[in-house]
């Protein structure tokens, strides 16, 4: 395998100024999987910022991918606003009581990222990682978009019904979720993180394109435009099938679009001249496929997508499974690097 010429930070920097780096970035979405290879419980990972950061740095050392991924689960902002979560020892936090199930929206306040819920855990993790490797490696902080946070405030089933029956209520929830998200992003940037916006509950696997356009997209756009004021290039990740909304994604103004269950060639054809594409290896294969299948699939994906006109990051389509085989993850990363070279 060729020896890297650029650092991951330099590589990302060249990508976002439309220059060709030595090779495409390799960004498996290694989040809670880092706890597994660090040998710590998911409860500790999700509630202790230093433990989260150390697990992420251990993953970087073991795998050699191109970014730290600070993330636990999408309820973190809603929890800081009053929703109640349980913390299993060996699973991700689970919502027990959405705050708006029992309280009116008027009593909800904007959380202080330095004090409320697990937001300080995130900030501790970002700051520790940035001090450790921030000069060489991007520190990505995954931030749930307002639509996803809204579901965690209100209860997913109730929230989806309200999009049809009480649209003004939904908009009120989304506005307060947006305000809370912006406050959190201020602190993330101060700590050294680059916000990456995740909106899994806005997927076409969950809602219709009509609901996406009416409720999710405007708040994604407002949030991303706020972040653009800081001259940041922003990744938007939406899980599942987003084929029905691909044509709408440029309206979010995201600089990089991270895809999951989408034909990558179709995505390149539709978005590749205006947005950088991130994706989209099937994460189930990291858990269940042979190394030979992973090598073949990764090679095909990278050689297809690395010439996306605006730029490409080789990534998984969603989070690496918590119990994925480390050997499979390593094979994905090494194969993506090997076939992602641009420079001779």
Automatic annotation (TrEMBL):
One of its GO terms (molecular function) is uroporphyrinogen decarboxylase activity. Residues 9-339 form the Uroporphyrinogen decarboxylase (URO-D) domain. It comes from the Bacteria. GO terms for biological process: porphyrin-containing compound biosynthetic process. This is Uroporphyrinogen decarboxylase (URO-D) domain-containing protein. It comes from candidate division WOR-3 bacterium RBG_13_43_14.
């Amino acid at each position: 395998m060729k020896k890297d010429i650029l650092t991951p930070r330099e590589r990302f920097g060249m990508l976002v100024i439309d220059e060709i780096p030595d090779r495409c970035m390799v960004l498996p979405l290694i989040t809670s999987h880092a706890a597994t290879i660090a040998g710590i419980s998911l409860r500790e990972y999700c509630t202790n910022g230093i433990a989260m950061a150390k697990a992420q740095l251990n993953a970087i050392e073991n795998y050699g991918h191109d970014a730290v991924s600070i993330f636990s689960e999408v309820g973190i902002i809603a929890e800081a606003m009053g929703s109640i979560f349980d913390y299993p020892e060996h699973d991700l936090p689970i919502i027990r009581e959405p705050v708006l199930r029992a309280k009116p929206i008027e009593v909800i306040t904007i959380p202080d990222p330095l004090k409320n819920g697990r937001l300080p855990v995130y900030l501790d993790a970002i700051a520790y990682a940035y001090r450790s490797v921030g000069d060489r490696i991007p520190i990505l902080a995954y931030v749930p978009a307002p639509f996803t946070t809204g579901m965690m405030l209100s209860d997913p089933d109730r929230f989806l019904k309200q999009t049809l029956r009480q649209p003004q209520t939904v908009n009120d929830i989304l506005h307060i979720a947006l305000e809370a998200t912006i406050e959190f992003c201020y602190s993330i940037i101060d700590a050294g993180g680059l916000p990456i916006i995740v909106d899994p509950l806005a997927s076409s696997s969950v809602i219709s394109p009509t609901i996406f356009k009416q409720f999710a997209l405007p708040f994604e756009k407002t949030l991303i435009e706020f972040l653009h004021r800081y001259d940041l290039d922003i990744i938007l990740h939406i899980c599942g099938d987003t084929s029905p909304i691909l044509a709408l994604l440029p309206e979010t103004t995201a600089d990089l679009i991270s895809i999951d269950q989408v034909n990558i060639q179709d995505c390149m054809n539709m978005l590749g001249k205006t947005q950088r594409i991130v994706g989209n290896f099937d994460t189930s294969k990291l858990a269940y496929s042979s190394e030979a299948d992973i090598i073949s699939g990764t090679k095909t994906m990278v050689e297809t997508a690395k010439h996306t006109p605006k730029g490409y990051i080789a990534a998984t389509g969603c989070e690496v499974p918590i119990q994925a085989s480390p050997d499979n993850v390593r094979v994905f990363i090494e194969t993506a690097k090997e076939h992602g070279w641009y420079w001779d």
